[in-house]
Design goal:
With about 550 residues, the chain is an alpha+beta fold. The protein is built from 16 helices and 24 strands.
Length: about 550
């Protein structure tokens, strides 16, 4: 009987689902219980990370009392078993550095950032049976640094205002004729234009709507529109009777018919503000000299128009002097003025100058032609440190690493094609100095200078407000360069094409050139000063700084 009943029970399928459901419900309840604990851990971890972020921001915003600020923030958020550690450090926002290399632990006195490591726990309920623990440990870290941005420019100052010479230079680069006075140029130098106001005016002139600053700057616009936008900006700020505005009107009239198109990105790089719509104006900007902006515009248009002109000299021993100037592109992705933090870099453009001086000779040669070719590589300036005063911005300081460009100088024959081909560095052959009455004198010389070690330059807040230009490099290098060229001079004299030695002629030409170092130096220095170019030098200035308090960083 018992066997029969057991067999019947085994064969009976009724109630099987209930049994399986009971078993599965047990598992489901178990997983649900674990899910509750996992969810609680996840939410508590998010809260702990938020508290760590707030504590790091509080600490970085008040480095002097960072420990108290971080501790108070954590205490007010009432975390379970909370404990934290605080580290001071120097944060360098350089994309070239790996994220874990950007924060370097330092002494409190030199810190611009703080890192908070927070340890807390969250209680376990259902998971206790699995883990054997009553709580789960949570470990979070947050780093915050003082946010600072500055405007930096690199170029050259105008040392000598010679209206006639600047008219030839700037007019030649722009592709027009100018007739401004020295007073006009002084007014343009003194007139400051806001970079973002100018870009807004440029967008209007070029009929760009609904675009970002990056889009505008990367688009080709007519040189005449660029100059007219400068005038619009100047009128809006200074009115219509200002001397600088009047001078700018003269430039705009001269440029009215220009059709050359340029990209203005090498002029101004908006940095982190490039994605803003034109018209949206950030708190930090740059007040740029109107003359500097015109000079950079001319340099950008230089691919179409090169400056070539004769100098009117009254220097004894010099019959005449001709100048040719060619300006290459800046290194790709760089500009003359830009916005950014530490690591931001600006460059000058590569510049080539050919000064051909005709020296007064004596029988049997009345004139000795001396071509001096100078090539100046781009100079570089990089923001290496911004000590942002917060909340008192007047205590802010900046440090810039400046590397002047390498200077190559030759006495030699540079062809027109080589002079304008910036993809190849010219290596000129011997130039013909004298070719008269069967007498031919050729010569070649080379000298260079390079300062490849960056020089730190410090800027105070007043320096930034006043746009104080600081110079790095060798002063009075022009005369030294000429002396080195003359010292390296290799003369070759032939008479009647026979290649006969002519010691007297060679000695006479050498003596003439040696005695001409001082007068040639006067002419070359005058040209360079009017161009605003310093050999073996670089000028850098800052025109704006913004301190936004602390921000979270990686």
């Amino acid at each position: 009987m018992v066997r029969r009943l057991l067999g019947a029970f085994a064969r009976d399928r009724r109630g099987a689902i209930a049994i399986l459901s009971a078993l599965l419900m047990t598992a489901l309840v178990g997983f649900t219980a674990l899910g509750v604990d996992v969810g609680a851990v996840y939410l508590d971890r998010r809260k702990a990370q938020s508290v760590a972020d707030l504590a790091a921001l509080a600490a970085a915003s008040n480095i002097a009392n960072a420990d108290a600020a971080a501790g108070d923030t954590i205490a007010r958020n009432r975390l379970r078993d909370a404990a934290y550690t605080l580290e001071y450090g120097v944060y360098t926002p350089n994309p070239a550095l790996a994220p874990d290399k950007r924060f370097v632990v330092s002494a409190k006195a030199s810190a611009n950032a703080a890192r908070v490591t927070l340890d807390t726990t969250t209680p376990l309920f259902f998971a206790r049976a699995v883990t054997g623990r009553d709580a789960f440990a949570i470990h979070t870290t947050a780093t915050a640094a003082l946010s600072s941005l500055a405007t930096i420019s690199v170029g050259s100052r105008l040392l000598k205002v010679d209206g006639g010479l600047i008219n030839k230079l700037l007019g030649g680069l722009l592709g027009t004729s100018l007739s401004l006075s020295a007073m006009d140029y002084n007014a343009l130098i003194a007139m400051k234009l806001d970079a973002f106001d100018f870009l807004k005016a440029l967008a209007t002139r070029a009929q760009f709507t609904g675009v970002t600053y990056d889009t505008l700057l990367d688009s080709k616009v007519k040189t005449s529109d660029v100059v007219q936008a400068m005038l619009d900006t100047a009128k809006a700020k200074y009115g219509t009777t200002d001397a600088g505005v009047t001078a700018m009107e003269d430039v705009a009239r001269a440029a009215q018919g220009l059709t050359t198109k340029i990209k203005t990105l090498p002029m101004i790089d908006p940095g982190p503000y490039g994605s803003l719509a034109v018209g949206d104006k950030p708190k930090v900007s740059a007040a740029l000299s109107a003359y500097d902006m015109l000079a950079v515009t001319g340099a950008l248009a230089n691919g179409e128009n090169q400056a070539a002109f004769t100098i009117d000299t009254n220097v004894p021993g010099i019959v005449s002097a001709d100048v040719k100037l060619s300006i290459g592109e800046r290194p790709k992705g760089t500009s003359w003025a830009t916005f950014g933090g530490p690591g931001t870099t600006v460059h000058t453009a590569q510049t080539r100058l050919l000064l051909t001086v005709n020296l007064l000779g004596a029988a049997p040669y009345s004139v000795v032609k001396l071509p001096i070719y100078i090539e100046i590589a781009p100079a570089t300036a990089q923001i290496s440190d911004l000590a942002c005063g917060f909340p008192d911005v007047a205590t802010s300081t900046a440090r810039v690493a400046v590397t002047p460009g390498v200077v190559d100088a030759w006495i030699g024959d540079v062809s027109a094609a080589d002079f304008t081909n910036f993809s190849v560095a010219p290596s000129p052959g011997a130039a013909t100095l004298v070719n008269v009455a069967g007498i031919k004198v050729t010569a070649r010389a080379h000298a260079n200078v390079g300062n490849l070690t960056p020089t730190p330059v410090n800027f105070s807040y007043n320096d930034i407000l006043n746009e104080t230009k600081k110079t790095v490099g060798t002063s009075n290098f022009t005369a030294t360069l000429l002396s080195r060229l003359v010292g390296d001079l290799q003369l070759n004299v032939s008479v009647l094409g026979l290649g006969l030695g002519a010691p007297l002629i060679s000695s006479g030409v050498s003596s003439l050139i040696g005695n001409a170092v001082s007068p040639v130096d006067q002419v070359l220095s005058s040209v360079l000063q009017t161009l605003g170019v310093g050999l073996g030098q670089a000028d850098v200035w800052m025109s704006g700084i913004r301190c936004d308090g602390a921000v979270l960083v990686i």
